[in-house]
Amino acid sequence: MADIAITSVQPDRAAIASQWQLIWWAFKRHRLAMISLFVTIAMYIVALVPGFFAINDPTAQNARATFYPPQGIHFIDTTNGFSLGLFYYPLKLTRDPQTLAAIYKEDTTKKVPLALFGRGYEYSVLGLFTSDIHLIATTDKTKPLFLFGADRLGRDVYSRVVQGAQISLSIGLVGVFISLLLGIVLGGISGYYGGKLDFVMQRVIDFVLSLPTIPIWLALAAALPQNWPATLQYMMITIILSFTGWAQLARVVRGRFLSLRTEEFVSAARLDGVSEGRIIFRHMLPSFSSHIIASVTLAVPAMILAETSLSFLGLGLQPPTISWGVLLREAQNIRSIATAPWLFMPGVAVVIAVMALNLLGDGLRDAADPYNK
User: Fold this and answer.
1) Residues 138, 180 share a domain
2) How far apart are CA 151 and CA 248, in angstroms?
3) DSSP string for 235-289
4) Which of 58, 208, 246, 366 could connect to 182 by a Cys-Cys bridge, CB 3.0–4.6 Å?
């Protein structure tokens, strides 16, 4: 009898993959989105522990370093013999003989080494403990390093930009979380139950969407007392930004619930005696959770831009709170633009963050679209 060879057919990987695996495989093919993912992760790591990445105390003033220009970090030294290692040259101040304008040049005769994971000023780590370990630290405290220059009070712009990332990036996450909570709860109730409740909820959403966003933000932010502590200001600005951000998401969630409540798997769950809460959170929400994540990712940049705009106009967070919008207020006059263009570095940080989050959101949205190829 001839042997009968039995071969097992290997199932297609895509046929047995979960929804999240399919989204991840599609997302990995989006190169810009992958780059943006790493940039976003890096930004939020910096925002998590800004003191570790800062070089100087962001609140320390130095009268001798007013509008100090940016300095560079070197790795190879050929002027004082050949050597390798992180170091920088302090700047020497000279005057133009004709205009008496300040001119800074590197003093290559004095090399200041930099220490990786060196000690510097003390900072708080998530409010749990203090540390003085920094990614890069100067070995000569009398010759500070200003990577992005200094402002009119001699404060390190680089360290302030790094510190400001904690407020500006977190306010986007907190604001979107509140908007997400309101949007899912109110939109879900409206779409699941329908009827008169849906009619009332939709009229409320129509009213919120009809409000002019910028004037409402300005009016509510201007009503905040200026003598409130920074933490209370932060909380109130976040609530203000979330006030008008939930309505659009609620309408999207409502539409999805309207289309899903007549599906067979929902009807089967009802016939099986499953509670309404379990139907909503265990069966309906997971079916379009990828779309919600993509919408949230695209909403975070809008929150960051809103906080930056309010703080830049003086109606948001106030000094001594450090955010990118507060830092940009230093660049509001002609003298700053002419003599210290590096004061726009917080604006560069805003552009990078918004672009990275937008590209990340676009990649997630495309990956979550079942009709996208």
Assistant:
1) no
2) 40
3) HHHHHHHHHTTHHHHHHHHHHHHHHHTTSHHHHHHHHTT--HHHIIIIIIGGGGH
4) 246
Query: Among residues 124, 147, 67, 78, which one has the least CA distance to residue 335?
Result: 67
pLDDT of 9 strictly over 70: no
d(Cα 354, Cα 356) in Å, to the nearest integer? 6
In tens, the pLDDT along 320-363 reads 888 898 888 888 777 777 778 899 899 899 999 999 988 888 88
* Helix 289-312 vs helix 19-28: crossing angle, to nearest 10: 50
| pLDDT at position 5 | 47
- pLDDT at residue 4 tops 80: no
- Indicate whether 362 and 246 sit together in one domain: yes
Please report, in angstroms and rounded to a whole number, the separation of the first and last CA atoms in the chain.
49
Identify the CA nearest to 157 among candidates 167, 148, 170: 148
Boundary (domain end) residue, out of 92, 121, 152: 152
Total domain count, the chain: 2
Claim to verify: residue 82 and residue 196 sit in the same structural domain: no
Claim to verify: residue 192 and residue 337 sit in the same structural domain: yes
Element (H, E) at 103: strand 102-106
- Pairing state between β 74-77 and 83-88: antiparallel
291-324 confidence digits (pLDDT tens): 777 777 778 888 888 888 888 877 778 888 888 9
Domain-terminating residue out of 152, 168, 196: 152
How many of the other CB atoms lie within 10 Å of CB of 341? 13
> Which tokens hold the place of 33?
């989105």
Residue 132 within a domain: yes
Highest mean pLDDT among 14-18, 104-108, 155-159, 359-363: 155-159
Query: Mean of the pLDDT values across residues 163-190?
Result: 85
Query: Cβ(138)–Cβ(112) under 8 Å?
Result: yes
Assess if residue 7 is contained within a domain.
no
